[in-house]
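Appendix B, Record 12. Input sequence as logged:
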Amino acid sequence: MTPRKKILFVLLGLILILVVLIAGGISSFSYKDSIINSTSNSNWSDESTSTTFGEVKEVKSNYKPADMSLVVLLDGDTLYKDINKLMPIVLTIDAYEVGPLWMPLRKSADFSAAGSIKINRKVETTSGSDLISSFNTKLSGQFTVSGNVALNGFYSHNEAKKLVQDLVVENFVAKAKEHFKTFSPENLQNFAVMQSIE
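Logged structural output:
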């Protein structure tokens, strides 16, 4: 083997080692640049009903939208958890797709995700053995996000995947919390004691 071929093999070997280290996240380099474009949307359906039997003393609610608890799940894994005073609402990511993010130095891929919240709960107030009020809620939310990501620099495959996943979760959480802000204190009071009837 000629010296020129030996040098070429050594250089190729070093480049291969560098690529493996970067892709595996073992080596850390500081140059990173990302461009992410995304659009997200949410649709809600609320079929809440409230029934009162006789006179019911009104209870002043001290709850506010910030007291809502939210958990985001993907394939059984918890990606986000914000537990506050009220029973957690679970947002499930039902579909999640992202293009290949394995190329070294320049990664570009489209991504999309769909998620949902489904709540079917009730609260009943009794006085002795008499039912005096009943509140039922069937609340559902559908979430979508799509876009593309371009990553330049020394991102490992796992870093790139987590960056896109975090963006999806961030979009869904923002849309859910935006909707929670519309809940009245009385509605939130009901969420404090609801039981699932699914």
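The chain is about 30% helix and 45% strand.
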